[in-house]
Amino acid sequence: MTMNHTKFYVQPLGLLRGFCATNGTFKCIAGGNIYFSAVKIIERSSDHISEDFVYVDALDDYLSHQSQEKINSIRSTLENISGPRAALHFQNGLELNWQKPVIQGVLNITPDSFSDGGKFEDLTNSLSQAEMMIGAGAGIIDVGGESTRPGASPISIETEKSRVKPVIKELSKKNCVISVDTRNAAVMTAAIDAGASIVNDVSALNHDSESINAVKRSHVPVILMHTKGTPEDMQDNPEYINVVLEIYDYLKSRIELCVTAGISIDKIIIDPGIGFGKTVEHNLQIVRNLALFHGLGVPILIGVSRKNFIGRITEEKTPSKRVYGSIAAAQICLDQGVQIIRVHDVEETTQALSLWNAAGTVK
Question: Does residue 307 have an active-site annotation?
Answer without folding.
Answer: yes
